[in-house]
Amino acid sequence: MIENTPLVRKLGAFVALSDTELSVLASLHKRRRTFVAGRDLVHQGQSDQAAYILASGWACSYKLLEDGQRQIVDFQIPGDFLGLRSVLLNVSDHSIEPVTDIEVTEVHVADLLDAFAQTPRLATAVLWAASRDEAMVVEHLVDIGRRDAAERMAHFLLELGARLALVGLGSKEGYACPLTQYLLADAIGLSAVHVNRVLRQLREAGMVTFRDGFVAFGDYNRLAKFAQFDPSYMDQKGPLLP
User: Fold this and answer.
1) pLDDT, tens digit, for every residue of 59-69?
2) 192 within 8 A of 185, measured Cβ to Cβ
3) Residue 91 above 80 pLDDT?
4) Pairwise CA distance, residues 42 & 133, whole Å
5) Going edge to edge, which strands form the sheet with 81-82?
6) Cβ contact 228:155 at 8 Å
7) C-beta separation of 178 from 100 below 8 A
8) What CATH number was assigned to the domain covering residues 140-234?
9) Cβ 208 vs Cβ 214: under 8 Å
10) Cβ atoms 62, 71 nearer than 8 A
């Protein structure tokens, strides 16, 4: 049912969704598609593509440099839009690759704009979600520019945990995470060897363990203090518009 989807959980943190708004959201879920891990569904420079709502699995947005180096801009989890900014601007400024096999809902821009026209509060909620994503990208810039490697890793894992908790997939105890050390390296600007070293440092300090696809917080509060993690930039609860 649409009421239990990650997208509804996420938008419901901002707006108490009405039956009409839930019905409009359900109407966007007409075209279901699946993509396999490692095969881009959106290419940098691509035009005339659809946007997607991630229903299950993980994906990443990345920029590819001319020398072949890759910078992962962000990871997408269930409930996130894929390519929303690009579809509104008519050209994609980044690529999107599934990290795992994923299921998505394909949303054409005309359907999206029609949904916004029918339910302006829903448009406001989606704008909140997009603004929240932008705030996280700003925080990632601070990660790379001003936090040391261990703080950067801690902050990144805490942010993922908060995002997953919002859609019912994580808690302050931990969360399932399919990311490899190579993916983490491309996201936070470290080498894979350095990622391994930093994860060991955090594990030996008793704050967090990342093993066998699961992030376990050993001491959440100490880790948050160590990383100077203040989740207010994600505005997890929002103003809950009436």
Assistant:
1) 999 988 888 78
2) yes
3) no
4) 18
5) 31-35, 102-107, 51-56, 81-82
6) yes
7) yes
8) 1.10.10.10
9) no
10) yes
Output the average pLDDT for the chain.
Answer: 88
Cβ(32)–Cβ(2) below 8 Å: no
Given this chain, do its domains 2-129 and 140-234 carry the same CATH topology?
no
Helix, strand or coil, per DSSP, at residue 43: coil
Structure tokens at 78: 């269930």
Q: Which residue has the tokens 């103003």?
A: 239
Residue 145 Cα distances to 99, 149, 151, 190, 228, angstroms: 25, 10, 12, 12, 15
Q: Output the pLDDT for position 237.
A: 54
Two tokens, residue 242: 């009436």
CB atoms within 10 A of CB 105: 21
pLDDT over 70, % of the chain:
94
Decide if pLDDT at 220 tops 90. yes
Q: 64: which strand partners?
A: 70
Superfamily covering domain 2-129: Jelly Rolls (2.60.120.10)
Per the DSSP assignment, residues forming a β-bridge with 104 are 33, 54
Domain ranges of the chain: 2-129, 140-234
Q: Determine the pLDDT at residue 236.
A: 54
